[in-house]
Amino acid sequence: MTDAPTSVGKAHPLLTVVPDPAADRATAAPSPSASLIDEIVREGARRVLAEALKAEVDAYLAQFAGERDEQGRRLVVRNGSHRPRRS
After folding, report:
1. How far apart are CA 30 and CA 20, in angstroms?
2. If you average pLDDT over every residue of the chain, what do you get?
3. Over the Cα atoms of the chain, what is R_g?
4. Higher pLDDT, residue 53 or 23
5. Residues 49-65: pLDDT tens digits?
6. Three-class DSSP category at 74
7. 78 and 61 in contact (C-beta within 8 Å)?
């Protein structure tokens, strides 16, 4: 006997983080636990994005660490990490 393909979520419901607008209309106020879970997920996403951006910047800086101008200064530096150069 072969199983017929089913749409994802119909046979096995998926966990969703984004609230359903229809569910919001059905209840007067969201439950406190749903708000807490949403905030935890948002904070986790912020942290993951911040770490990913930091890693990307670090890799970019490392890639061009050897690039120098005529005065021997690095061409690619992290913005705001050092005092401004004098011309």
Report:
1. 11
2. 77
3. 25
4. 53
5. 999 999 999 999 999 99
6. strand
7. yes
